Amino acid sequence: MANSNLPRRIIKETQRLLSEPAPGISASPSEENMRYFNVMILGPAQSPYEGGVFKLELFLPEEYPMAAPKVRFLTKIYHPNIDKLGRICLDILKDKWSPALQIRTVLLSFQYPGSLECTKSR
């Protein structure tokens, strides 16, 4: 990770994602932009998504961690809280975001189908 203008927090979170990956989740930063992550998530066992491999993109805005990451599914998926463009309606990506949350927390929330709860407005 040679991007010296990145905040220390992003560097630490990225190092942890690479050295201690969450089970069923792969997230690696782009070589061109260390704020952009290529993500692969395995569908959780005993769910309609079991056996699936889902590609996502995650982008950390300049305001991160004060602002939530921008995340969307690149793989087409049928889910009531994911629109046809892959945008995710998840409370922690909207009004329930907290700077105490991390990239890892966000990615783990996608592995459990019941965790994608939509807020009142998209």
Structure description:
- By secondary structure, the protein is α+β, with helices and mostly antiparallel strands.
- It has one domain: Ubiquitin Conjugating Enzyme.
- Helix content is 16%, strand content 19%.
- It is built from two helices and four strands.
- A four-stranded antiparallel sheet has the order 1-2-3-4.
- It is globular and about 40 Å long.
- 17% of the residues are buried.
- Pfam families: UQ_con.
- This is UBC core domain-containing protein.
- InterPro entries: UBC, UBQ-conjugating_AS, UBQ-conjugating_enzyme/RWD.
List key phrases describing it:
122 residues; Ubiquitin Conjugating Enzyme; single chain; alpha+beta
Radius of gyration: 14 Å
Q: Any idea what the CATH architecture is?
A: Roll
Shape: globular
CATH class division:
Alpha Beta
Give the helix level as a range of percent. 10-25%
Taken in chain order, the helices and strands follow as HEEEEH
Give the strand line-up of the largest sheet: 1-2-3-4
- Mean pLDDT level: 90
Structural class: alpha+beta
Helix count? 2
**In total, how many beta strands?**
4
CATH superfamily: Ubiquitin Conjugating Enzyme
Low-confidence stretches: none
**Structural domain count:** 1
Strand content: 15-25%
Looking at the structure, the CATH topology is Ubiquitin Conjugating Enzyme
First-last Cα distance: 35 Å
- Mind describing the biggest β-sheet? 4 strands, antiparallel
Domain UBC core: 5-122
Active site: 89 (glycyl thioester intermediate)
InterPro entries: UBC, UBQ-conjugating_AS, UBQ-conjugating_enzyme/RWD
Keywords: ATP-binding, Nucleotide-binding, Transferase, Ubl conjugation pathway
